[in-house]
Structure prediction request, 371 residues.
Amino acid sequence: MWLLFCVTLAASVHAQNDSPAIENARKQIESQNYDGAYSTLTAAIRENPNSPDLYYERGKLRFLLQDYYGAAGDFGFAVELDSTFADAYNQRGLAIHYNGDPELALEDFDVAIKLKPDFADAYSNRGFALYALGDNENAYFDFSKAIEIEPTNSDLYYNRGFVRLDLGEFVGAIDDFNKSISLDSLDAEAFKLRADAEYQIGALDASLSDYSQSILLDSLDEVKFASRALVYSEMEKYEESINDYTKAIELYEEEYEPGPELYNLRGVVYYTAQKYDEAIDDYTTAISIEPSAPLLYENRAAAYFDKGKFPDSEQDYSVAIDLDPEDPENYYFRSQAKFEQGNKLDGCLDLKKAVEMGLTDARKELKDKCK
Prediction:
């Protein structure tokens, strides 16, 4: 989850004048010639192994290429050569965090802040690490401190809004995303997360508008289409919901192996719209991908039942029970499929089992049907 945060790889203000090697490497990075930039910086380090700035620049390049371990190493060389290099401590902390150790990263952020008390990025990154460790109160404090230092930085409001959203502070999250968007109206993720918060408070029209704007800004993210599909479904706009889930499936499968979740969700919309054949097809596809998920069999069983295919419904509930024998509702629903087929004896056994397992709402039906 923490990868959703906005982080900044700021240019170092450590050196008064960048070396020709650093300037050349930055131009190569701008043109996406990463191998060339790496070679340029490595050659410069061989010629000048005591330059903290060269290690810092190569560390940023390694971080960009997701070589977090290597990046941490280069930032480490930079601070060994200059123990006052606040930016390098900050970047090493970030690399360590991304490499999976947010607790260790805190040490570097603390040093960076001690060296440079007005270091907004370091406060934000420390808040980021604290959040990952579950220390939400101090994470909130750090994000707020970063905003105090840089009140026009849209990323800082985004980060605090993200934490508020995860903490269930939806109105506060919306306030932060409002500010983030006012400072950067082209951030698709900020619109998407504001839509998430609006959905949680029931502001469906606002949520729909924000999801649509996030899709206009980023039309290649299946999550945004799936999120808007959920809002359409809540608004009973089933055709639009189905279209969005279909697009989400298409985008997902361009990048990954097929997964069951989106087929199941589209199946639920088909089912709600009483398009049982289409729902059954989607549930069947989901089951073919993930045959050990009881929920998928339960959903298909419900569609079979409402279509009047009671033997198929019974069979799916039986599979769901085999996969999850502790769910009393599956015994209850299987009893209904058996009753519809005239199998009162077995239906009553299932109904009795459901009641024994704690489904007290079925007691009256058990008494009436199974005297």
Observations:
- The mean pLDDT is 95.
- Residues 238-255 form the longest helix (18 residues).
